[in-house]
Design brief:
This protein is α/β, with parallel strands linked by helices. It contains 10 helices and 9 strands. One of its GO terms (biological process) is uroporphyrinogen III biosynthetic process.
Length: about 250
């Protein structure tokens, strides 16, 4: 190992789903670190997939906008529905935008900051109309409630479920032994599931986005790293800067 790399000898815990962890793990390794993947969440289709398909097909042509708030929303939506999108498209996050564009769809609205709050502000500048909201079962009610409050006709369709994943013993060995240099959390559910399984982390914590940070702090966790750019690249950059400061 090249010990001149910024994350040399650092063990960084990743709690997001296995599929989502791959990119972050590669980035950590590229900077000399060791990623400890302990996925605490997993995603799955809703139990009533046939009902959701019927709901999509019955409603999609009746709404001016369709909104995707995550890459998972895109993935599970198009596993259920293979038709066209006769709507304007809005998204939260550049990764969500890229996921849609990779399928050949044009995205009409992306807020500059990757949060539901900023998407609401963007819609305040649009002509009030109707909106189909594609989300998971643990999505905050904020978008639905606030857009309805300002006059939009909003219908939410839940296309996937976010459920707790209990790791195998070999996965959480380093956690139990306290051999983690940094704990990372990328959603409130990863925070809640970690606390349920392990209790409070005994080392520095990094979160992505203000919602995850708030969830951690409400649980009594002191957050050391929280990037202003709500992306994995933004989180990685802040982690690099954090250890640079710690090691000098």
């Amino acid at each position: 190992m090249d010990r001149t790399l910024p994350l040399a000898d650092k063990r960084i815990l990743i709690t997001r789903s296995k599929e989502q962890a791959r990119y972050f793990s590669k980035q950590i390794a590229a900077h000399g670190g060791t990623s400890l993947e302990v996925p605490l969440i997993q995603f799955q289709h809703v139990s009533d997939s046939e009902g959701v398909i019927s709901d999509i097909e019955s409603n999609i042509a009746d709404f001016e906008w369709i909104v995707f708030t995550s890459v998972n929303g895109v993935k599970y939506f198009f596993e259920l529905y293979q038709g066209p999108l006769p709507n304007k498209v809005a998204v939260v996050g550049v990764k969500t935008k890229q996921a849609l564009e990779s399928l050949g769809f044009k995205v009409d609205l992306v807020p500059k900051r990757f949060s539901a709050e900023d998407l609401i502000e963007s819609f305040k500048r649009e002509k009030v109309s109707s909106l189909l909201l594609i989300q998971g079962n643990l999505a905050r009610p904020l978008l639905r409630e606030e857009l309805s409050r300002i006059g939009y006709n909003v219908k939410q369709i839940v296309v996937y479920e976010n459920v707790i994943r209990v790791p195998e013993e070999k996965e959480w060995k380093w956690v139990k032994e306290g051999k983690v240099d940094l704990y990372t959390f990328t959603s409130p559910s990863t925070v809640h599931n970690f606390l349920e399984l392990f209790g409070l982390p005994d080392g520095p914590v990094a979160t992505i986005g203000p919602i995850t940070r708030t969830a951690a702090e409400k649980a009594g966790i002191q957050v050391a790293i929280s990037p202003s750019e709500y992306t994995m690249d933004g989180l990685l950059e802040e982690i690099l800067q954090y250890f640079k400061r710690e090691d000098t």
